[in-house]
Amino acid sequence: MAALRDAEIRKDVQDYYGQTLKKSADLQTNACVTPARPVLKHVGEALRNVHEEVALRYYGCGLVIPERLENCWVLDLGSGSGRDCYALSQLVGEKGRVTGIDMTRGQVEVAKKYLDYHMEKFGFQTPNVTFVHGYIEKLGEAGIKDESYDIVISNCVVNLVPDKQQVLQEVYRVLKHGGELYFSDVYASLELPEEVRTHGVLWGECLGGALYWKDLANFAKNIGFCPPRLVTANLITIQNKELERVVGDCRFVSATFRLFKLPKTGPAERCQVIYSGGITGHEKELIFDANFTFKKGELLEVDEETAIILKNSRFAEDFLFQPIAEKPPASGACPVLEAKDIITDPFQLAGQPDAVKSSCVPDAAGGCCGKKKRC
User: Fold this and answer.
1) E.C. number, please (predicted)?
2) Among 159, 292, 281, which Cα is nearest to 231's?
3) Of 137, 189, 277, 344, whose CA is between 20 and 30 Å from 298?
4) pLDDT score at 279
């Protein structure tokens, strides 16, 4: 019965994205549309180089372009028309590699149609992008090998799959040690009732399959990922009275998280780090997530979890690490962010004013020390 229901959901989603939707304006909620927010100059240039038809068929709930991409191998889950893949193609460079996988043949065909166009526009002699038809919870069947990618991204797609834990399990399998899943998706404020979970349009609009946000941390722990790092969050609005009635008291948020797969190491310790400013587009500061912002040249104390991620990921060469000094911090210095102060709830972050979101947690390391003293 479950397998039959899953097959029905896949068919509904394929029909919705392959036939019902022709452009992003056809959507009935803002769940699958990126909120207007500043885009880094080099990322904006990469997006502007994407063909118009590819961009028009884009349905995403966040901008899933992480930092430090040069020469990386990137896998895009639910790549759709290929917009993010073609942007990433430029950012990883000709020595990098981007693979897009999508279950909707119509979307894959649109992406493949403009492969030569983009490679010529980028000046690449050999294509560094591949598009595959397949299911993101069955990456092995699509030929995706173990520990073959540095980064996996996904843009408002995991919610469309009934078995979300299997998706994360497959991502863990194909990531290299030190690799990262950087993804935007839709989350619910509570466990969804049956009426919402079986509503065809709500599934297509990314709401019917939304994960209860607390379940993400449980899945990550069971699979072996580090605890999820919340990056951004925005509340979702529904522009349809009938859909509003169906969802009732449930609220939805589009949020970006990063999950790291790290090698087995000994006990982690807090340490002090200094960011070098060597990442393209982040020369002055690196906003790592909603809790930690690293300014070039500034000494900052980080917790055990953050320290082990920075030391064992692609970010290691961008930081200088040193033990914590025994003497107390100077007057006015930022204290380390305590676990109780870490923002993990996307609804909490989404409910904050934009000015607070951009500068993170007041009076905490990695966020800010008030309006005049930002760490």
Assistant:
1) 2.1.1.137
2) 292
3) 344
4) 97
Cα–Cα distance measured from residue 315 to residue 277, given in angstroms and rounded to the nearest whole number? 11
* Residue that the structure tokens 């760490």 belong to: 375
Nearest to 187 by CA among 165, 161, 166, 208: 208
Asked if residues 82 and 54 have their Cβ atoms less than 8 Å apart, the reply is yes
Topology at the third CATH level for domain 271-359: Ribosomal Protein L9; domain 1 (3.40.5)
In whole angstroms, give the CA distance from residue 326 to residue 300.
Answer: 14
Residues of the chain with CATH 3.40.5: 271-359
The top-level CATH class assigned to 2-261 is alpha beta
Tell me the DSSP string of 211-267. EEHHHHHHHHHHHTPPPPEEEEEEE--B--HHHHHHHTT--EEEEEEEEEE----S-
Please report the pLDDT score of residue 374 as a whole number. Answer: 31
Task: Tell me the β-bridge partners of 77.
Answer: 101, 154
Q: How many CA atoms lie within 13 A of 154 on its CB side?
A: 28
Q: Which two tokens stand for residue 19?
A: 């036939």
Cα angle, residue 39 at apex, residues 76 and 206 outer, rounded to 5°: 45
- At 354, the pLDDT band (50, 70, 90 cuts) reads low
Report percent pLDDT > 70 for the chain: 79
- The single-letter DSSP state of residue 160 is G
Q: Which two tokens stand for residue 293?
A: 């912002």
11 has pLDDT over 70: no
Per-residue model confidence as pLDDT tens digits over 240-285? 899 999 999 999 999 999 999 998 877 788 999 999 999 999 999 9
Q: Provide the token pair at 60.
A: 């995403």
Q: How far is CA 74 from the centre of its chain?
A: 12
Q: How many CB atoms lie within 10 A of CB 37?
A: 12
* 10 vs 104: CA distance, rounded Å: 9
- DSSP type of residue 29: B
